[in-house]
Structures are given as structure tokens and as C-alpha cells.
Specification:
The complex is a heterodimer of chains A (279) and B (487). Chain A is α/β, with parallel strands linked by helices and 279 residues long. Chain A is built from nine helices and 17 strands. In chain A, β9, α3 and β10 form a beta-alpha-beta unit. In chain A, α5 runs parallel beside α6. The longest helix of chain A has 13 residues. The longest helix of chain B is centred in the last third of the chain and has 25 residues. In chain B, the strands form four sheets. In chain B, strands 3-2-1-4-15 form a five-stranded parallel sheet. In chain B, α5 packs antiparallel against α6. The chains are: A alpha/beta (279), B alpha/beta (487). The complex binds flavin-adenine dinucleotide (2 copies), iron/sulfur cluster (2 copies) and FE2/S2 (inorganic) cluster.
């Protein structure tokens, strides 16, 4: 059992949880995730460690309600507990000093991007961050991103905040302006289609592009093979080989098809919860 | 009974759920003996002085003694007798491959039918549990030594129980949210009800064993943390062989194609058969192909049958004679209407426009020259391929050593296939660290994992006691035995 010390709604259907997890907090690194179970009958779902406080023994999770399992977690309030939090899982982001990095955060992807951006910033890298959302009310943590970035560019699909348009537009501009070839890598984390289009955008510039894949998982320890993805023509397990992979090598079609494996089951689950899904 | 009537008496059959009924539920298939049936079966035992049956049992259960106690109508004492060498009798009575172990050596086997040792073991254990007469041995006085056990499968649980009895403080770290290892996530309810595993785990807790669930050692805490900062005096690694093997053929990542570990974990541990009352779903197929011919394949096929599979095929690349699964499992599967398509090897999966599997393309095989294992090697029959319809495929072709923990524990030497190298007593190349079960031998059996746990517990105990007398650091580390054989 892990106590929820604080919960707040960052945006409609996007919740931030401060969770007591001393052992996880002690080891967590940017890029890693946990598996969470709301209760004994719940699914095991992966969520990124959005922040951690080793002293206080806490981790921060940011979760968007998209289906029955995330809905169930969202029903829990401050002073209630999660049945299980398992981690930290997956590899840490390989953060090193020097040069310029571009971070692209789409939707709830802002949460995983934040600790990685902070780590690059702490290493003295120049950090450009692009944060995108469908509409202004879905933006959160912009101030936190700004505090660890040399420049923050905000976009919304409908122009209600920041620039109107998709994150790929400022991304292309940054790459085009980078005649000195200072940008050594791009990180893109968010909904699968957004990551895919970011990878397509950076490809002509041959800038290494890391994405964090959100495949369906069960154990998170490399035992079941449910999270398998195809990267560079090879089958890899997201939970232990990732979750970060080279965006130019990912087979996006397979990933997106596999994410829909339980589509009909989800409809069935949704009938049990009063939910109008976020995306 | 006279000796001749004993040897002539037939084995008492095990009552079972009839096939047409059981394919509609997940309840246990063999229903267990009544006391009368058990006594009748036990009376067949000749009580041989040399008891060859015992040599067939990896933990040398005192078979003639416990069988005698059942014959005399004293099943609770029979259970206590088994527990002296086997701490999971209700489990072993059900899942041990008795036909190649204890029962294979029974003298009555040569004359026809061996004593049904497994069924009697199960009977004694179930009786003790039902009557709430589980014998709780007294643990030795506290030694003040602390042992960390990684993995709550049969190997780890055995080590934990044995060391708790000797007065050590034992903590088991388990990655999953439930203890039991393959017993809870792999072997289906209809072969091994989960409440049985649960009560064995509770038994250990009553002995004082602490179980810390949701702890992935290597990630949340490392083996060296356990020995250094966490203050454990010894560590046992029993993490199993949880790494699924893929075939790497086209289409393997289509939706509806599972590796057996995932399929069985969803259904057993996560109880997906109860969806949507529980939250974890599983794909239900009406035309199912299971790839492989071992026990895992049988479990997967029989599970799929219970989850709506109308046509369930087991595809195996050799013939029925080479099928590695236990005869009893194959028999049960056939009774449940599962078809075996032998000399058949998948080479490609074909999907629909939504990315779901629809067909399996198979290469027809024939048996060629014997390979290293002495079995005739299957070779493709040129030009002969078949297409089999499938909306659910489960790949059960074996498992390897999961590197999650070992890659974070570089001082523990590994064999060629990533299994931990350990000597007969389980000692690894790193002082203070032991290992046993599937992570050392490769996929084997419950009872072998327990046997390894027992040996390691003995060695750990000796090490701890020696250290408490002489202080740390001056015990010679035994040489690791040769490369594990089973890989
Ligand atoms: C390594 C990893 C880290 C993750 N980190 C986070 C995180 O920090 N915060 C977070 O909110 N989610 C995160 N996810 C995704 C999260 O695990 C899923 O959203 C969750 O499992 C959905 O469960 P559900 O039952 O509520 O929805 P389901 O019923 O399973 O899905 C409902 C619908 O939402 C779609 N969907 C699923 N995941 C997403 C997604 N990420 N974005 C948009 N649509 C989706 C599905 O395709 C489906 O159509 C992460 C996933 C992985 C693999
Ligand atoms: C489907 C199936 C059916 C089988 N049927 C039979 C049968 O009928 N009869 C028989 O005798 N044998 C059978 N076997 C084989 C038998 O189950 C195994 O040989 C036995 O369970 C091995 O025991 P173990 O303790 O070594 O490992 P496991 O049972 O695999 O247990 C290992 C435990 O360690 C945990 N773990 C792994 N990594 C970590 C980590 N880093 N940190 C913490 N915990 C960790 C795992 O979650 C697991 O709980 C079957 C196996 C399968 C898969
Ligand atoms: S533990 Fe297994 S092998 Fe040993 S006597 Fe019991 S059933 Fe037979
Ligand atoms: S060998 Fe058979 S008959 Fe003899 S003691 Fe063992 S079980 Fe009984
Ligand atoms: S989630 Fe099971 S192997 Fe990755």
C-alpha cells in the first residue's frame, strides 16, 4: 500500500498525485516509470515518475484519465492508498553534458519530459522546450518547464494559448535555424501520433530523436513479452529495453495496432464507469 | 491384504470433473480421493524396506511411512511426515511429474501399476488443511542473523521456510503483488487452485517469514544493497526463468498473438477469466493455435478452451512420441477436445487490416536424423505448407534466464545462456550469495526448485553459524559447479 499524500487536478481529467514510496524515490532516475494498481482487482498500468524527492520519500505521478483503470485511480483521493506501486522500472535517460537539446512535450507527456529536461539543464546543456496541447485549458506545469529551459515555446491546436498549431512546426523551425549544428538530440514524449510526427520531422535533419513508448504492459520486468515493440526490425520489450527508443527506428504501425488490442474490452469497461474519455 | 492381492489390486481411479462440464469452468479437474479411496490405494503399498520410490523423489519424501499412515487412517500424521522433507505437499501432490520420479521407481510399476504416490500426497495435504490440523513446528531460538530471499517461487519459499525454522530472520522480496512464482502466475487454477498456494504462503508467514511484495530486486534495491546497507548476512536468488522466447518469424507482433507467460499471467494472476468483474482483459479466440508441445503449451491450450476456444490446435514440430508434456496433461487436453497437429511448424502469421492475427502459415515437417539429444530432428518437407485459421495464438516454446537482476549483479558469475552458476549447495561466485531453481537450471520442475532451495538453506545455515563463531570473511568459497546442464 502506498499512501496518496496529495492529489490535485492540473487540468480537466489530468491529475497529479504525490505518493509515498521511499524506496522508489531513493532510486528513481529521469525516464523511469512505475507500475500502479489501484486495488486488488485492478489492472497493472505503467505511469512515468514525473518527479521524486529522495529526502521526503515521495514520487509524483501525473495521469490522464483515458479509460477504466486510469478512471479508477482518479477516484482515489488524498489520504487514500494505491494497492501497489512497483518500480522504478526501465532504463534511466542517458543524460550527459554539452550542446543543445530540444525537448518536445505533448499533452500529458509534459510530466515525463520535466525531470529529463531538468537533468539536462543541471548538466549545463542548453535546453529548448516545446510544450503542446489541444487547447489552453489542458496545459499544465508550463512554469516548471520554463524553470529548467533556456526557452519554452507553447503551442495549442486551437490557438487558445501560445502559438496556434502543432509542436512539429516550432520543432522544424529550431532545426532549420540550427545552422551551427548545436542541437545534439531531440526528446519527444506524448501521444503516439505526436511522437511519430516528431520523429518524421527530425529525420531529414539526422538529429538523434528519443521517444518514450507507451505500450500495454503487465509485469514490467521483461517476463511476459506483452510490451513488445519493433525497433530497427527487432523485437524489443518496452519495459526492460526501454521505455526510450530511437524514434527513427520504431515501427509505429505495429505499436499503434498493439495499443488497440483491447479496444472492444475497453468499451465494455467504460460502460461501468461514468466517463467521457479525455482524448 | 496379502502380498499377492496387493500386487493384483488395481490403482484406485481418481474422481474427475467430466470433460464436457470442466471446459466450462476453471475449477480443479481431479477432485481428490475420499478417505476410503485413499486408504484402499495406500493399502496397495508393499512397504518395501529399500523403498526405491524414495530414490525417485528429489527431496526423498519418506513414502512408505506416509503411505502406511494413510492406510492406518492417520492422514494428518501422514502430512506431517511428508512435511519433514517437503514443505509444499499439496502443491507437489498435484504438479510433480510423478510418472518419471517417485512412481517410476515403485516396484509395482514393473508389475503393472505403481502406487498413486502423488494422489496420496495430495490427499494427506488436503486433509490436514481441511481439518485445520496443519502441524506447526517450533522454530529454533533466534540466531540474530538476517537472510534476504529474492523471488517467492518454490525455490525461494523453501529456503525461507527452512531458514526460519533454524531461527534466522528471513525476508522474501517478490516482484509481483502476490507470492508463489509460477504457481500463481503460470499454472492454471484448474490444475492448482490458488487458495492452496495461498495457504502454503500463510504457513510460512506463521513460521515468521516476512514477505515484501512489489519489490523488484535490481531496480528498487540491489543485491549489494541488501548485503551492505540493508544489513543482510546472506542472500538467496530464486528469480526463476522468466524470459519468454520468441521465434522471430514475420507477423509475430500482431494483436492476438501472446507469448505464453503473458497469456497465463493475465488469466491466472490477474484473473482475466473474470473480466469485467476484474479490470484486466484477455483476448478470447474461437480458433486458437498454441505453438509448442510442453506443459506450458498444454496449460495454455486448456485455458484457451475454457475461455471460448471452439477449435484449439496444438502445433508441434515433431510427433506425439516426442511430445515433452506429461502424459496426464496430454490425456486431459485430448479429453477436452484439443487437437494436436504434429510435424507442423509455424513460419509466418498473417493479419487483417486492423493488425489482428487471422491465419498461421505452417511448414509441414518430417523426422530426419537424430540430433544431439537423440531425438529425430524435424526437417521441412520441401514445398509443403498449410494455412490454419486463428484469431488467437499462444507461443509456448520455452523460456530463458531473465537478465533484469543478474545484469545489476555483475559479481555473480553467469553461464553461457545467462543462468547463474552455482555449486550443488547453491553457492555462487559471490560470497554470501546463493541461487537455486530455474534461474540456475533453466526451466525445470517445482520439486527440483524446492530441492535446490533445501540444499541452499542447509549451506546458508552452516555459513551463518560459522560466521557467528569466527566473524565474517574467512570462509573459503566453494568452487561453482560446471555449467548448468538444462539450458
Ligand atoms: C512507460 C509508460 C509510461 C506511461 N506514463 C504515463 C503517465 O505518466 N501518465 C499517463 O497519463 N499515462 C502514462 N502512460 C499511459 C498509461 O499507462 C495508459 O494511459 C493507461 O494504461 C490507460 O489505462 P486505462 O485502462 O485507463 O485506459 P484504456 O482503457 O487502456 O485505454 C483507453 C483508450 O485510451 C488510449 N490510450 C491509452 N494510453 C494512452 C495514452 N498514453 N495517451 C492517449 N491515449 C491513450 C487507448 O488506446 C484506448 O483507446 C504510460 C505508459 C507507459 C508504457
Ligand atoms: C505454465 C507452467 C506450467 C508448469 N507446470 C509444472 C508442473 O506441472 N509441474 C512441475 O513440477 N513444474 C511445472 N512448471 C515448472 C515450475 O513451475 C518451475 O520449474 C518452478 O516454478 C521454478 O521455481 P523457481 O522458484 O525457481 O521460480 P519461479 O516459480 O519462476 O519463481 C520466481 C519468482 O521470483 C520473482 N522474481 C523474478 N525476478 C525478481 C526480481 N528481480 N525481484 C524480486 N522477485 C523476482 C518472480 O516474480 C517469481 O515470483 C511449470 C511452469 C510453467 C511456466
Ligand atoms: S514430492 Fe513429488 S516426487 Fe516426491 S514423493 Fe511427492 S509427488 Fe513424488
Ligand atoms: S516402491 Fe512402491 S510399493 Fe514399495 S514402498 Fe515405494 S510405493 Fe510402496
Ligand atoms: S510488461 Fe511484461 S515484458 Fe514488459
Amino acid at each position: 500500500m502506498n499512501a496518496i499524500l496529495r492529489k490535485n487536478e492540473l487540468a480537466p481529467q489530468i491529475f497529479e498525485f504525490l505518493v509515498s514510496a521511499p524506496q522508489i524515490a531513493r532510486k528513481a532516475q529521469p525516464g523511469q516509470f512505475v507500475i500502479v494498481m489501484a486495488d486488488e482487482a485492478a489492472e497493472r498500468i505503467p505511469l512515468t515518475i514525473a518527479d521524486f524527492d529522495r529526502e521526503a520519500g515521495t514520487i509524483t505521478l501525473v495521469m490522464m484519465v483515458v479509460g477504466a483503470s486510469s478512471w479508477k485511480i482518479a477516484q482515489l483521493g488524498t489520504d487514500e492508498s494505491l494497492f501497489a506501486v512497483i518500480g522504478p522500472l526501465g532504463h534511466a535517460s542517458p543524460v550527459s553534458a554539452g550542446g543543445t537539446v530540444v525537448m518536445v512535450a505533448g499533452g500529458v507527456g509534459t510530466a515525463p519530459v520535466f525531470p529529463i529536461a531538468r537533468a539536462f539543464h543541471d548538466q549545463g546543456c542548453k535546453v529548448f522546450t516545446i510544450q503542446g496541447a489541444r487547447t489552453g485549458s489542458l496545459l499544465f506545469w508550463s512554469d516548471r518547464l520554463r524553470s529548467v529551459s533556456d526557452e519554452l515555446i507553447v503551442t495549442t491546436d486551437d490557438g487558445t494559448a501560445g502559438r496556434k498549431g502543432l509542436v512539429t512546426h516550432p520543432l522544424r523551425e529550431l532545426l532549420e535555424q540550427d545552422t551551427a549544428r548545436d542541437i545534439r538530440c531531440v526528446y519527444a514524449i506524448g501521444p503516439t501520433p505526436m511522437m511519430r510526427f516528431c520523429a518524421l520531422t527530425t529525420q531529414p535533419f539526422a538529429v538523434p530523436t528519443t521517444v518514450s513508448l507507451n505500450s500495454i504492459m503487465v509485469d514490467g520486468t521483461g517476463m511476459c513479452g506483452g510490451c513488445r515493440v519493433e525497433v530497427g526490425g527487432q523485437t524489443r520489450f518496452t519495459c526492460v529495453d526501454g521505455p526510450e527508443f530511437d524514434g527513427h527506428q520504431v515501427d509505429w504501425e505495429t505499436l499503434m495496432a498493439r495499443q488497440k488490442t483491447y479496444h472492444s474490452h475497453e468499451q465494455c469497461s467504460l460502460q461501468r464507469v461514468p466517463l467521457t474519455a479525455g482524448n | 491384504m496379502t502380498a499377492t492381492s496387493r500386487t493384483k489390486a488395481r490403482r484406485v481411479p481418481m474422481p474427475e470433473q467430466p470433460p464436457e462440464q470442466r471446459v466450462g469452468n476453471f475449477r480443479e479437474v481431479p477432485l481428490g480421493y475420499t478417505l476410503e479411496q485413499a486408504q484402499a490405494e495406500a493399502a496397495r503399498c508393499l512397504g518395501c524396506k529399500k523403498a526405491p520410490c524414495r530414490e525417485g523423489c528429489p527431496v526423498s519424501v519418506d513414502i512408505p511411512a506416509f503411505v502406511r499412515l494413510i492406510a492406518d487412517g492417520r492422514p494428518a500424521e501422514a502430512a506431517a511426515c511428508i512435511r519433514q522433507t517437503n514443505c509444499l505437499p499439496a502443491v507437489c501432490g498435484r504438479v510433480c511429474p510423478q510418472e518419471t520420479q517417485c512412481e517410476a521407481r515403485c516396484v509395482l510399476q514393473r508389475r503393472g501399476e505403481s502406487v498413486a504416490i502423488g494422489r496420496l500426497e495430495r490427499f494427506a495435504a488436503d486433509f490436514e488443511q481441511a481439518a485445520d490440523q496443519v502441524y506447526l513446528p517450533t522454530t529454533a531460538a533466534s540466531t540474530g542473523k538476517r537472510v534476504a530471499v529474492v523471488g517467492a517461487g518454490p525455490a525461494g519459499l523453501t529456503v525461507a521456510g527452512d531458514l526460519a525454522l533454524r531461527g534466522h530472520e528471513v525476508t522474501v522480496f517478490e516482484a509481483f503483488h502476490k507470492a508463489g512464482g509460477v504457481l500463481v502466475y503460470g499454472i492454471p487454477e484448474f490444475r492448482l487452485p490458488k487458495r492452496i498456494v495461498q495457504s502454503e504462503v500463510e504457513y510460512l508467514e506463521r513460521l515468521g517469514v516476512r514477505i515484501e511484495l512489489n519489490q523488484v530486486v535490481g531496480q528498487s534495491v540491489s543485491v549489494s544493497d541488501l548485503l551492505d546497507s540493508e544489513g543482510y548476512d546472506a542472500v538467496f536468488i530464486g528469480v526463476g526463468a522468466g524470459l519468454p522466447v520468441t521465434m522471430g518469424i514475420p507477423g509475430e507482433n500482431l494483436c492476438g498473438i501472446y507469448l505464453a507467460n503473458e497469456y497465463l499471467t493475465r488469466v491466472n494472476l490477474m484473473r482475466a477469466y473474470d473480466f469485467p468483474a476484474v479490470d484486466t482483459p484477455v483476448v478470447r479466440g474461437s480458433r486458437v493455435c498454441v505453438i509448442g508441445g510442453g506443459n506450458v503449451a498444454m496449460d495454455a491450450a486448456r485455458t484457451a478452451r475454457r475461455l471460448g476456444g471452439e477449435q484449439v490446435n496444438v502445433l508441434y514440430r515433431r510427433t506425439m512420441d516426442e511430445l515433452p508434456a506429461r502424459a496426464e496433461e496430454v490425456h486431459h487436453a485430448q479429453e477436452e477436445g484439443i487437437d494436436f497437429r504434429t510435424l507442423c511448424a509455424p513460419i509466418e502469421y498473417l493479419g487483417d487490416d486492423r493488425g489482428f492475427v487471422r491465419q498461421v502459415r505452417c511448414q509441414v515437417m518430417e523426422l530426419g536424423e537424430p540430433d544431439k539429444s537423440g531425438r529425430r530432428r524435424p526437417v521441412p518437407k520441401p514445398g509443403e505448407q498449410i494455412l490454419i485459421d486463428a484469431d488467437l495464438v499462444i507461443v509456448a516454446i520455452g523460456s530463458g534466464a531473465n537478465p533484469l537482476l543478474t545484469r545489476k549483479t555483475p559479481k555473480v558469475a553467469l553461464g553461457r545462456y545467462g543462468h547463474i552458476v552455482a555449486n550443488e549447495a547453491g553457492a555462487t561466485s559471490l560470497p554470501g550469495v546463493w541461487a537455486g531453481g530455474d534461474i540456475v537450471t533453466g526451466s525445470a520442475t517445482v520439486i527440483l526448485a524446492m530441492g535446490a532451495g533445501r540444499a541452499a538453506a542447509q549451506d546458508i545455515h552452516a555459513y551463518l553459524m560459522e560466521h557467528s563463531n569466527r566473524g565474517a570473511g574467512d570462509t573459503a568459497q566453494p568452487e561453482p559447479a560446471a555449467e548448468s546442464a538444462a539450458a
